[in-house]
Structures are given as C-alpha cells and as structure tokens.
C-alpha cells in the first residue's frame, strides 16, 4: 500500500529545511544594505521630484532633493550612489560639448552631495549619451555611421578628469569604447588624481531592457524616430567568451572594479567574471529589470517584495559583490528592519 511506503535514505536534504532556525543556519547568500549602489537621476532647477512613468518610485531630482535623497540613502546604510544627469535638450549637440563644461549639471550635483554627505561614495558615469543630440555614447565619425572610438576616448578622459576634480570617488565609463579605461587612468594619474578609482562597465550588453533608462535621461528622444542602436560598441547578448576578454582588458588597463550589465539575464556571465578576476565584481540590475517586476506586481501577477528580494539574491549568488539597483533604498530599509 502506498501509505506504508518507506525509503531507506541515509541522506535527506529536507532535514535542514524543517525549521526556520535550521534554514537560517544553512543560508549561503545574505543581502545587506552595503551591497547596494543607488542610481539617481538629476535635473536642473528647483522643481518637485519628476516621476519616471516606466520606473515606478524613481524620480528625477533637482540638486536640492538629490542631496536629501542621498542623506536618506546614507541613513539607510546604502554606501554609494551613481549619478545620471538629464539635460535640457537645448544643451545637447552632436559633439556633446556640455559634458566638458566645468559647471555642467552633474558636476554641480557631485559637489553638493559630497559637501552634504561626505561619507557617501559618489560615482559618475563617463559616457556622452546624456549630452549628444543623437543619443550615442560617443561622437560620430565623418560618415556618421559609427561612433568614432579614439576621438571619443579623448573626450571621455577629459570628462573623467572634471569629475575627479569635482570630488567623485569612482568614475564609471559606461561607453564601451576600446582603450578608455587605460586612457582615463593615465589622465587621472597625470593630474595627480591617483586615488580616484575606475568602476569599468566592462561587459555591457546591447540590451533591449535599457528602454526606461533612455526615457529617464532622454537619450531615446534625442535619437528621434530612428531606433537608437548601440550594437557597434555594446556587446552582442549572444556572446560569453567576449565578456571575459573585455573584463581582462579593463583590469589590465587599470580598472579597480568591473561590471556586468544587465544583471538578471546575465547571471552566467557574472559567475564567469567572478571566476576570471579577483577584482570586485559589480552587476547592474537595469531599468527594464526593475520595470518588469513593478509592472507584473501592478497587475497583481507577482509579489513585489518577494520578487525584488529574489532577483537581487540571485545576482549576489551568481557572484556579484555589489549591485546597482533602483531598489536600493527600499531593500536597505527592509533589511535594516
Ligand atoms: C549609457 C547608459 C545606459 C544605462 C546607463 N548608462 C544604457 C544605454 O542607453 O545604453 C542603462 C541603465 C538602465 O537601463 O538602468 N551610457
């Protein structure tokens, strides 16, 4: 009879799942507020926080509110923020010249945050997409059919230098040009900024899930009706070995930390990168990953808090030491209790 069925089993994995106490004792991966980096959007003026429709709960802040948000993040135990400016479209042009204005929005934001919350690690993006009228991360070649690598790198190195002068702790090249990490390191060292670190977006894929972010900074609108394709510099999502190549190159050029982006769809890459380098590995849970969880929760199809936790746990379990996530403040507060 089925009810009398007995197995002779020396090993029963369920034994260690029986009580909450036992489960906690054998838990392998634990999230903590210090695991997170909060990406934040900043705009000119003194207006109220401007919500981003495709990213529920995420706002574009004026500098005053950005500083307030940074104080709250610091209080919640989040160690770092990554700042992204949304520029007035009138300030954008083909060459992205606002990126080299020593008083451009993001640099004023850095000074304000560093002044108010000096203990908070401040990270800035090194890429031209918030500044160019075509929305690309660099300047175009003469035929205007590709981003010009070396000329872009020259501009990025100057941009990184301005960010270092403004007081950032880490500059984060997200542009995927060849040779930019080395050029930025030389520029920083040459000017005496030997303590300013480089968080390299090393394996950044050409993902369809960046959509909400491009709304947030206006790079999609800048590109106009034509679809903004970054396939000539961001990596093909089909490739795995190339990610390791990119990581090793960036480490050789002087990257202090390396990044895999997006995160949740690229857990295999995070693990391989973890195994390929002893540098800290950062993963970016991007706007589309965040938007998906919120959208499904809004429909009543998924539980927001549990999916948020599981999505981040998976990224850490895969091998990420740090995670850029729009959930940073919510998660830190939940974890702090
Ligand atoms: C580009 C940049 C992108 C993100 C951050 N910096 C994407 C892109 O437009 O290629 C995406 C972040 C996100 O989707 O959350 N320099």
Summarize this structure briefly.
This protein has 337 residues and is an alpha/beta fold. It is built from 12 helices and 10 strands.
How would you characterize this protein structure?
With 337 residues, this protein is an alpha/beta fold. It has one domain: Aldolase class I (TIM Barrel), CATH 3.20.20.70. Helices cover 39% and strands 15% of the residues. The chain has helices at residues 20-25, 63-75, 105-116, 149-166, 180-190, 211-217, 219-222, 241-253, 267-276, 287-298, 304-318, 328-336, and strands at residues 36-43, 50-51, 59-62, 80-85, 121-126, 170-173, 197-204, 257-261, 281-285, 322-325. An 8-stranded parallel beta barrel has the order 1-4-5-6-7-8-9-10, surrounded by 9 helices. Helix 4 (149-166) packs across helix 5. Ligand PBG binds next to helix 6.
């Amino acid at each position: 009879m089925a009810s009398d069925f007995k197995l002779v089993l020396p090993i029963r994995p369920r034994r260690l799942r029986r009580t909450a106490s036992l489960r906690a004792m054998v838990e392998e991966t634990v999230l903590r507020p210090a695991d997170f980096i909060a990406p934040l959007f900043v705009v000119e003026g003194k207006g109220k926080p401007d919500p981003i429709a495709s990213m529920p709960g995420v706002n574009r802040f004026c500098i005053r509110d950005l500083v307030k948000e940074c104080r709250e993040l610091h209080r919640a135990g989040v160690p770092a923020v990554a700042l992204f400016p949304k520029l007035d479209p009138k300030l954008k042009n083909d060459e992205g010249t606002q990126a080299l204005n020593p008083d451009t929005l993001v640099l004023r934001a850095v000074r304000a945050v560093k002044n108010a919350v000096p203990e908070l690690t401040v990270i800035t993006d090194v890429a031209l997409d918030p500044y160019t009228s075509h929305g690309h991360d660099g300047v175009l070649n003469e035929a205007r059919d590709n981003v010009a690598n070396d000329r872009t790198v020259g501009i990025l190195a100057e941009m990184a230098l301005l960010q270092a002068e403004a007081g950032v702790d880490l500059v984060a090249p997200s542009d995927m040009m060849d040779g930019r990490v080395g050029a930025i390191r030389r520029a920083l060292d040459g000017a005496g900024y030997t303590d300013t670190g480089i968080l390299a977006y090393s394996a950044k894929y050409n993902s369809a899930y960046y959509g909400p972010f491009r709304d947030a900074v206006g790079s999609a609108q800048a590109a106009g009706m034509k679809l903004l394709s970054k396939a000539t510099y961001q990596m093909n999502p089909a490739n795995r070995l190339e990610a390791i190549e990119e990581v090793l190159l960036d480490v050789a050029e002087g990257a202090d930390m390396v990044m895999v982006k997006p995160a949740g769809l690229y857990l295999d890459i995070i693990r391989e990168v973890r195994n390929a380098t002893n540098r800290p590995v950062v993963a970016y849970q991007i706007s589309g990953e965040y938007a998906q969880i919120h959208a499904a929760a809004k429909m009543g199809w998924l539980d927001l808090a549990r999916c948020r936790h599981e999505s981040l746990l998976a990224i850490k379990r895969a091998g990420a030491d740090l995670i850029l996530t729009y959930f940073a403040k919510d998660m830190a507060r939940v974890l702090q209790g």
